[in-house]
Structures are given as structure tokens and as C-alpha cells.
Amino acid sequence: MPAITLGPVSTAFPETAVAIPDLAELSDLEPARRAHALSLGIATVRCAEENTEHDLATEAARDALVRAGVAPDELDALLVVGGRAPRYLLASEATRLQHRLGADRAFVAGVGELGCVSISAAFTLAAALLRGDERCRTVLLVAAATAPTRFRYRAPMTVLGDGAAAVLLGTGRGGRYQLVDHQVRSDGRYADLFRIDYRDVPRREWRETCADEATYSFRLAVESRKRLTAMNTEVLSRNGLRLADLSSVLMQNLSAGAFAFWEEALGIGIDPVCHRNLAGYGHLGSVDMLVNLDLAARTRAPGDHVLLLNSSPVAAWSTSLLRRLPDRDPGGTPS
Question: What single-letter DSSP state applies at residue 307?
Fold first, then answer.
């Protein structure tokens, strides 16, 4: 089975950064909610104004192709993880991006429905394409997120920021990481725990709501701990590793409290890069995974194993085991 590599990651963020205390919506929250929003460990979020989700995705995708040395018309597959509120119903954001990039010969698909874990599902599909079709050697994975409503505070969880990221997966030489092992699981009992009621509702009144906060904070938390513990054990055991052998554990950026919960629940330490990205960008949905991988790569040595954890209130969970590869100089030799 061919080794699958990924990276480097390219990112795109709006220029406008807003400090959390300056978010207009906080003044309308009850005191306890406002205090919670200010206690999440998030200092600022990037806010798209004129930039659309599609614009950010295009910028990140183009840069990823340039950095990988792949021309758009050489790309074999393009997988697009979009936001939860597409600009139009029935339209295709994935083929729109294909056209804008000029990736005319690429197989194209949109990947979604699993919240933050949609990026992990895209990893699964990319790996299947690369391993199952000898003609497929390059897959560009693009994820973008902008807040689906004008309210960025998602109670009782996080504050949403805007951004995009892209990464090339392939079976050739190069890349920042090798995708060693990967697993995704889901549970439909929580399918609409978080939702936006948009039919017959003016867009300005759209709001993300949690149908049952007790279920999210307790029942789903316990379920997530069981799931990720079992998945981590399976993936690490299959590869002859233990938690102590890992150089880094990364996960999506929700809040400082969430990091503390997972560290205690799973007996792990969350890499400080996650805290840094949380403070600077807030929660970026699926984009979190790629942003954290990019920053972590700068401090990991060749051969280091990284565990990438992901979960969403849909509910879905994933565990990915990656190995840091040597950087290559422009001539293509390991540095």
C-alpha cells in the first residue's frame, strides 16, 4: 500500500481582526453568557467582510498548489469541505472552485455533514482515492469556514472565526507529514443537537442553537471520551505505539476549558500551538485541523509522531496518526 503524504498547509484569513469584547452581540447577552464568551481563551477572531468563503478557499487552494509545485490542470482530485450555510441551495461550491482554479481534469466532490469532522472524512476519501486508483497521485483538500449567522458566539461552546486552509495529499515524494493511520466514527443520535432553523426565517434572524445543553455538556461529553479513548488505543496499538511515544497531540480549537477537559479525560497534553491558534482565530470548524498541523510542523523533528484528534456535536469523532517527514530543499533532497 503506497505511503500517503500531506503538506505543507496553506491558509487564508481575512485582514479584519475583532477583539472578543468588541463583538456587538456580547452587549445583548445575559451577564452569565457574556462572562462565558469572554472566558473561552479566545482573544480575537478574523471576520470576513467583502471576502466570501469561496474567496478564502480559492486563495488557500492556489497557494497550496504553488507550494506543492502542481499546476491546476495536473491535479487528479479536488475535495472541498465547505461551511454549513452555502451561498445557494442546489448550486455546487466544489465545482465553482474547480472552475476558478482551472482544475478541469480533476475528480471533484464536496465533503460535509459531519461538522468539524468533515475534514477527517475528506482525509478518508482522499486516502481511498490515492490507494485505490493508481492514476490518482494528487488530491487537493480545501476547507473554508465563515460564520453562518451574524452571531459568532456559539453557546455553550465557542466563538466562531473565519478562514480557509488547503493541503495537497499524494503518493509521491515531498510533504510535511505521512498519514500513517486514520479512523472516523459517528453516531446519529446527536444529528441535530446543534442547528439553524432557516426556513421562513429572515437571514438576519438566523441563529445557531443547541437543542439540549445538558445533553451536549454531559451525555455527549461522556460518549466522546469513551469513543476517542477506544479509537486512540486501537490506532496506536495497530502501529506499535503508546501515548508516551507521541511528540504532539493536536485537536480542534473550541475553548481553553475544552482543552483542559480532554487532557484530563484522555490522559494527554494538548500541544500549545492549539492554544495559540484558539486565541488568535477562535473556532474555525474543519479548518482548525489544518491550521494546527501547519503550526505544529514548524517545531516537530523528522520521525516525530503526531496524533490529530477531532470531534463534533453531530456527533462524529476521528483519530489520525501522522509522522513528521524531513523538509525538502528546492532541489528535492531532504534537508
Answer: E
Pull the grid cell for residue 20: 472578543
Q: Residue 219 to residues 189, 190, 223, 226, 314: CA-CA distances in angstroms?
A: 11, 10, 6, 11, 13
* Per-residue pLDDT reduced to its tens digit, 151-176: 999 999 999 999 999 999 999 778 99
β-bridge pairing 248-251 and 208-210: unpaired
**In 144-285, which residue ranges form alpha helices assigned H by DSSP?**
213-214, 220-238, 256-266, 272-281
Rounded to 5°, the CA angle 45-51-54 comes to 105
In angstroms, the CA 215 to CA 81 distance is 27
Strands (E), 4-96: 5-12, 17-19, 44-46, 77-81
Q: Grid coordinates representing 301?
A: 523533528
pTM confidence score? 0.95
Give dist(CA 225, CA 254) in Å, integer. Answer: 16
17/26 Cα distance (integer angstroms): 16
| Main-chain phi, psi angles of 4, to 5 degrees | -105, 125
How many Cβ atoms are within 10 Å of 313's Cβ, its own excluded?
Answer: 21
The H or E element containing residue 168 is strand 163-170
Question: Distance (Å, rounded) from C-alpha 266 to C-alpha 329?
Answer: 38
